[in-house]
Specification:
Keywords: Membrane, Transmembrane, Transmembrane helix. With 328 residues, this protein is an alpha+beta fold. Helices cover 36% and strands 24% of the residues.
């Protein structure tokens, strides 16, 4: 039984430092049948994506697939590159040419061939070419020496902590508004240094029914459309490494809750002796406004009732005068 012929494995790195284009090309070629068994190519912007050319074909192939999967390839250049190498490695004359160069170890000619591929896809610049080719057994086509999963784990950023609720519950009968802190980069107090009982300035953020209603009731919207800042009192604050959960109270009826992911920001504070309630407490809540309107309506009705006898007397007097006028 004849032995299975060996394949050529060729790996190429093309470094175009001027244009920051870094290209990987790899192919497995059957020299007996003069055909391509497998090939791939990709161009990216980082030289860190390149593997040493003495890596295996499968190492190159896996790395190129990961670059594409992560979206790190230069899409237009990679598309042109893949179309060109598909044509090249599907051409018997091209394969015969590079097989001849590999059989005779003509590396300078191979450098020229792949440099021309780069120029046709990435611009008319001369890249630095790194190339390695070797004969491998067909069973070694899938051989790997680089664990891409481990590489991906090392490159992955540390997980971002998910904000956790502090456990503080706003009473169910209170209204909850959306807000943001009023920042003061120069004179403000870092959020992580604030504590329950501190007074700060906030701005309500319109967008939901409750917040919009309170903005209108408190007349916080200026003619320009900007929302006025108002004082509020911190009733609970829970600080974590990178974020803070804060509950504030505008008055006895209106609360707000926010998770601030930049807890190093400086917040504008109010006079501790003044307190939030001194300003907002004099402004009626939406419920109080409705109650006051009803009271005004009731007062008007009572006043009308007390005037009724005088109106009747005037009507009787007018009728009497008209009767006298008719008799005369």
């Amino acid at each position: 039984m004849p032995e299975t012929p060996n394949y050529y494995s060729v790996k190429v790195n093309l470094r175009d430092e001027a244009n920051m284009v870094y290209t990987m090309i790899a192919a497995v070629i059957d020299p007996v049948e003069t055909k391509s068994v497998k090939f791939e190519g990709v161009s990216c912007t980082s030289p860190l994506s390149l593997l040493p050319v003495r890596s295996t074909f499968q190492d190159f192939y896996n790395r190129m697939q990961r670059v594409i999967y992560k979206g790190e390839q230069q899409k237009n250049i990679t598309k042109s590159l893949q179309e060109l190498i598909k044509t090249k490695f599907g051409s018997e004359s091209f394969l015969e040419e590079i097989l001849h160069y590999m059989d005779h170890n003509l590396t300078d000619r191979l450098d020229f061939v792949f440099s021309e591929i780069h120029k046709r896809t990435s611009g008319n610049t001369e890249p630095k070419v790194e190339i390695h080719f070797e004969l491998i057994d067909p069973s070694e086509v899938s051989k790997t020496t680089v664990d891409e999963e481990e590489v991906a784990k090392k490159e992955a950023p540390p997980p971002t902590p998910v904000p956790q609720a502090s456990g503080f519950l706003i009473p169910a009968d209170k209204q909850i508004v959306q807000f943001k802190f009023q920042l003061s980069p120069v004179n403000g107090v870092p959020l992580v240094e604030l504590k329950a009982g501190d007074n700060v300035y906030i701005r309500l953020v319109p967008g939901d029914g409750i917040t919009d209603s309170i903005i209108n009731t408190l007349e916080l919207k200026e003619e320009s459309g900007a929302i006025k800042q108002i004082p509020a009192k911190i009733v609970n604050i829970s600080n974590n490494k990178n974020f803070s959960e804060v509950v504030i109270k505008i008055n006895e009826q209106i609360y707000g809750k926010i998770i601030e992911e930049e807890n190093s920001v400086k917040i504008k504070t109010t006079d501790a002796q003044q307190g939030a309630a001194n300003i907002i407490g004099s402004v009626a809540s939406p419920t109080a406004a409705v109650t006051k309107a009803k009271q005004n309506q009731k007062l008007s009705a009572d006043e009308s009732f007390h005037l009724m006898p005088y109106i009747i007397m005037l009507i009787v007097l007018a009728i009497g005068m008209m009767t006298i006028f008719v008799i005369l």
